[in-house]
Amino acid sequence: MIALPDIHYINNSLPVDGKSSSGQDDLSTLIRECMAHSRSAQKKLYDIYAPAAYGIIKRYMFKDEEAAREILNDSFFKILTKLDQYSFQGAFEGWIRRIVVNTVTDYLRKNIKDAPVHKEVQPEDAFVNSSSVETLSHKELLQVVQTLPQAQLAVFNLFVFENCAHKEIADLLNITENNSRWYLNDARRRLKEKLAGK
User: Fold this and answer.
1) Residue 145's pLDDT is what?
2) CA distance 198 to 191
3) What is the mean pLDDT of each run of 10 residues along the chain (198 residues)?
4) What separation in angstroms does the CA of 132 have from each of 144, 155, 183, 185, 194?
5) What's the pTM value of the predicted model, to 2 decimals?
6) Structural domain harbouring 66
7) Which of 8, 33, 120, 143 has its CA 20 to 30 A from that of 63?
8) Residue 68's pLDDT is what?
9) In angstroms, rounded to a whole number, what is the distance separating the alpha carbons of residues 154 and 156?
10) DSSP 8-state class, residue 4
């Protein structure tokens, strides 16, 4: 496994293709070199995809730098050891993203306690007016989202950014579907209150 350099760059999307700046498609060659255990190819793959992968992880683990770096390490260990499972069909970036999100949810599953939810959050209480969101910069919006408690943050990210249904979220985090819905509504309610206070 390659050593991980310090990463401070945070981005929410993976590179859109595997092409070099010259436009030549060299992703397949790079993947095959990684599968042949070329350390320089592994480092190159890491250098290309780690910043964006780290950005995805930081959306979930904003308050825990140590856990974020551990998840990044685990993600790239899985990516580099499972490259033979990539079929060269579909977007490589999507394949990486799925591994990263699964690694994050594996970590969260161990740390989120699925206590029964008692208080109901009504949908109208959780409705966030889009005009209040539109006045915020992307960075300001992320700062507000990152104030959410861990469970609400995880469900919100999976629902909004990964387009997961509540059944899938429940399976990923080992919680009930009802609690997934409650965490999402509670996240929206908290965001509504934060945005109203801005």
Assistant:
1) 85
2) 11
3) 37 44 67 95 96 94 91 97 91 95 93 61 50 61 84 92 93 91 89 76
4) 12, 22, 21, 17, 10
5) 0.74
6) 27-111
7) 120
8) 94
9) 5
10) P
Q: What is the CA radius of gyration of the chain?
A: 19
Structure token digits, residue 144: 């507000």
* Residue 192 lies inside a defined structural domain of this protein: yes
H or E stretch covering 38: none
Would you state the pLDDT for residue 136? 63
In angstroms, how far is CA 178 from the centroid of its own chain? 22
User: What DSSP letter does each residue of 5-30 carry, written as one string?
Assistant: PP-----SS--S--B-TTS-B-HHHH
- The domain boundary, picked from 79, 111, 143, lies at 111
Hey, what are 39's tokens? 């350390």
Exposed / middle / buried, residue 108 (Cβ in 10 Å: 0-12, 13-18, 19+): buried
- Structure token pair of residue 76: 């790239």
State the number of CA atoms in the 13 A half-sphere of 158 facing the CB: 28
Per the structure, the count of domains in the chain is 2
Cα–Cα distance, 50 to 134 (Å, whole number):
30
What is residue 102's predicted lDDT score, i.e. its pLDDT? 95
